[in-house]
Amino acid sequence: MSGNESLLPTYYQKPFPFAKLLKKYVPLIAISILLTLSLLCYVFMPQIQSSTDFVQRNWPSILTDDTTDPSSPSTTTKARVYKNEGIKSIITGDASDGKESAGDVVTSGVKAVPLPSGDDPDPKVRERRDFVKDMMRHSWDNYVKYAWGHNELKPVSHTGHTSDIFGGDSKLGATVVDSLSTLYIMNMTDEFRTARDWVATSFDMSAVNADVSVFETVIRFVGGLLSAYGLTNDAVFLQKAVEVADHMLPAYNTQTGLPLALVNPKTGKAKNYGWASGGCSILSELGSQHLEFVYLSAATGDPKYADKVTKVRQFMDQMVKPHDGLYLNYVNPLTGQWGGEDQVSMGALGDSFYEYLIKSWVQTNGTDKLALKMYNEAIAAVDKQLVQKSAQKGLTYLAKLSYGHLEHKMEHLACFTGGMFGLGALHASDRRTKDHFMALAAALTDTCAESYGRTATGIGPEAFYFTETAEAIAINQYEKYYILRPEVVESYFYMWRLTHDQRFRDYAWSAAQAINTHCRTDYGFSGIRNTSDVHSAKDDVQQTFFLAETLKYLYLIFSSDDLISLDDWVFNTEAHPLPVLRP
């Protein structure tokens, strides 16, 4: 039986009594039907075509069969095509006129390929990686059990926790979003599926009617979602990233284009912290949204995100630096002038501004020349003015500059610089520069390891000093705490990948054991109030960055180099890997 004849009513299958009459009018009826269909196509086809173009531009995985099962082994997209010269100019550091057609930027349609297992051939190394994975499972399982949907877990009280950076009492599931890439990389497929489904059905930034940190929202939420998209090609992550980013854009509506620190997602009102040098923007925050917004423009074809951060970087480049190339910690977004406090820091308030300069060069596959220029100028000034050696054992550290005077104190936050200088050395143009900064990277990482080794717990404090009587230790009681920060193990990760010197793996293993011993509770992992006390009280907060960063870096240290290769991925400052963009 041909066609769908059997589906017709029986009376249409029998000879029609007026066959001759029907035969006479069949041609006329057929012509009428064709004319009607043509008219309908003329009216509605533009709308249909518009919808098709939208899908092709924004959700290429749907049309190219790139969609992957979230529970299957990890996958990654390695190839993207950027036909639009406007977007290409943004990626290479030139300004865009904002007139590009979004449809010109598309993904290549190359199917995602599975990530390697990351198994090291040494069984001892694999055992240590499993140890770290167990720490992640303990953190995640207890969050799911006791704080699901809340931003964080209180691992002593075993209940939910939040903070002002997430909009106070809002339930944004910050731990869910910040853990996505770690769960995926660790091949925790069931947990990843649970997290993915929650994001798809329950995550809603628009419901928050309170101030949230623009910086923290971009690096944790936008970065986490984009990383998950880059790893899986699952369109739901890109859609949610767009929604969150759009809620952050009002922060950029200033006279200079420099973003404000806080925004209310529901009202769109933005402002700065009152305590920040009279309402200034913070250097690390205004400069650390570049990786996320450039990738978002590349993934969606909408240049508005990259335009925002590119203009910020161009503005900062043109500012006169008061200390021979060093950037001050505060900038007034209304006047475009430096804030009133003459301070320079590679730790709090400054840190990731410098980090994103070299990482933008990496992200764009070595084409963002402005970022590289700014990085080279900045680190030359840092090397000349802030790099110091201790009097006792000659430990290398980074001092802070305050009103022209050095403060011989290094923060845990500044320990990321070992990794940054190492990554920069990898991309240096000449052997002398490469060798110098690789040596500096190793020396700074060794110093941060000393700050861990000189405490009773084997965990480094929030800040440590270098004086005539103190070396790499905390002096003040209020600076002896540890809140599960990742910066030290972050540098261990980079230095291991770049040198394969066993000491960096050894440092990492010591840190993992110490954290597991002193920070683990029955219900997760908590910060401790005194790293010099083996019986220290807990602070009862399992920070989202512990799952996003600390555990991810430790896991990758005990994995083979091809798992999230530095050739194909660049980590944002929350340790979310984003694909290197290759035009």
Question: What is this entry, summarized?
Answer:
The chain has 583 residues and is mostly helical. The protein has 18 helices and 23 strands. The chain has one domain (123-579): Glycosyltransferase.
Description:
It is built from 18 helices and 23 strands. It is mainly alpha-helical and 583 residues long. Helix 4 (123-147) runs antiparallel to helix 18 (544-557), helix 15 (431-453) packs across helix 16 (487-499) and helix 16 runs antiparallel to helix 17 (502-519). It has one domain (123-579): Alpha/alpha barrel (Glycosyltransferase), CATH 1.50.10.10. The longest helix has 40 residues, at 19-58. InterPro entries: 6hp_glycosidase-like_sf, Glyco_hydro_47, Glycosyl_Hydrolase_47, Seven-hairpin_glycosidases. Its main location: Golgi.
Keywords:
single chain, 583 residues, mainly alpha, Glycosyltransferase, three-stranded antiparallel beta sheet, 18 helices, 47% helix
User: Percentage of helical residues?
Assistant: 40-55%
Strand neighbour order, sheet with most strands: 7-8-9
**Broad shape:** globular
What's the gyration radius in Å?
27 Å
Low-confidence stretches: 1-26, 39-112
Architecture (CATH level 2) name: Alpha/alpha barrel
Structural class assignment? mainly alpha
Q: What name does the CATH topology carry?
A: Glycosyltransferase
Number of helices: 18
Strand tally, please? 23
The main sheet comes to: 3 strands, antiparallel
> How many domain regions?
1
Q: Residue-averaged pLDDT, rounded? A: 86
The CA-CA distance between the termini, in Å, is: 53 Å
Which class in CATH terms? Answer: Mainly Alpha
Strand content: 5-15%
Binding site for Ca(2+): 573
EC number: 3.2.1.-
Family: Belongs to the glycosyl hydrolase 47 family.
Keywords: Calcium, Disulfide bond, Glycoprotein, Glycosidase, Golgi apparatus, Hydrolase, Membrane, Metal-binding, Signal-anchor, Transmembrane, Transmembrane helix
